[in-house]
Amino acid sequence: MTLTETSQQPQPPRRPLRVLAAMSGGVDSAVAAARAAEAGHDVTGVHLALSANPQSFRTGARGCCTIEDSRDARRAADVIGIPFYVWDLAERFREDVVEDFVAEYEAGRTPNPCLRCNEKIKFAALLDKALALGFDAVVTGHYAKVTVGEDGSRELHRASDMAKDQSYVLGVLDDRQLAHAMFPLGDTVTTKEEIRAEAERRGLAVAKKPDSHDICFIADGDTQGFLADRLGKAEGDIVDESGAVLGTHEGAYGYTIGQRKGLRIGTPAPDGKPRYVLDISPVNNTVTVGPAAALDVTGLTAIRPRWCGAAPTAPGTYTAQLRAHGGETEVRAELIDGAELRVSFTEPVRGVAPGQAIVLYDGTRVVGSATIATTQRATAGV
């Protein structure tokens, strides 16, 4: 059963809303807050303090959780003319995002902390607190759209500009969360330079601030070093598909499926071609490497499904996205007993890692997401 793409368009609000704008200190969230205020909503800005020691997070303009970022957010709120607060969610962030991140790598999986932050922090802890205080919705600077049907039902869609679409990291939102989410940038079909130009016209000092990159809670961008500090060094073998030892590592948690660089293998492959990480086994602390072709995946199973609306009731054909900045691929998906998603790919895809999220789309509509648990390789025995 193939679902059809919705033709519903966003409906204008019937009344001004009391909304809480999550302001990271970057240009997108500042412009989103400004647009919400310009639309007539009663907007309050809030910056989330996500570290008990903010100076341990990235300094400068590369992150989204530093002291400098909170100051940038406050200055933007002053220019917009809205109240502004800093809320301390450091303990919740540590438990739900940072500790989850470490535990997933320790188990040999590859997590997406931004997706987990949206699920557990921005649209759970933050939203719950906002609703308890009488706010109607949370505003963020994500590039995505929420459409409202005649019956009041809501759907999450890709942004109008696919180049900036961020619906993948929002695929964990359920009906309740969508009902209280606003993304003022979702209909923007402009370049980032035009968003910056709008910020400059509005007098926002963050207009020229660089975008954040990497993982906000890893100060120097060294993920392997961050994990080693928390999990300790644990030497193990790097082996080929036959089990022959090619080298050693200092912790299997420091690798991810599809990785090519940093393998430190002294023995070249017989065909002279690069090797890639094929498997990570925490049980025996072994990293298996092999040729690129061995990364081809024909299917997967995924757990903990979350649906942006009703769950599918029958097998269906969708497109799927497997990485935050990845492309789409056609899949056949079936929900088993409401708890496990079984997916087969029309064409093999490469470098799929357990722990990543798979997000299903019907046209531009986000159907839902799940966490990849296992993969089926095209090459037998891999």
Describe, in plain words, how this protein is organized in 3D.
Helix 1 packs parallel to helix 2 (67-80) and helix 3 (90-106) packs antiparallel against helix 4 (113-132). A six-stranded antiparallel β-barrel has the order 12-15-14-13-16-17. The protein has helices spanning 27-38, 67-80, 90-106, 113-132, 175-178, 192-201, 223-231, and strands at residues 18-22, 42-49, 84-88, 137-139, 144-148, 154-158, 181-182, 236-239, 245-249, 276-281, 286-290, 296-307, 316-321, 328-336, 340-350, 357-362, 365-377. By secondary structure, it is of the alpha/beta class.
What would you report as the Rg, rounded to the nearest angstrom?
22 Å
Strand order of the largest sheet: 12-15-14-13-16-17
Order of helices and strands: EHEHEHHEEEHEHHEEEEEEEEEE
Helical residues, percent: 10-25%
Instruction: List how many beta strands DSSP finds.
Output: 17
**Alpha-beta content class:** alpha/beta
What's the main sheet like?
A: 6 strands, antiparallel, barrel
Uncertain spans? 1-13, 56-62
Question: Total helix count?
Answer: 7
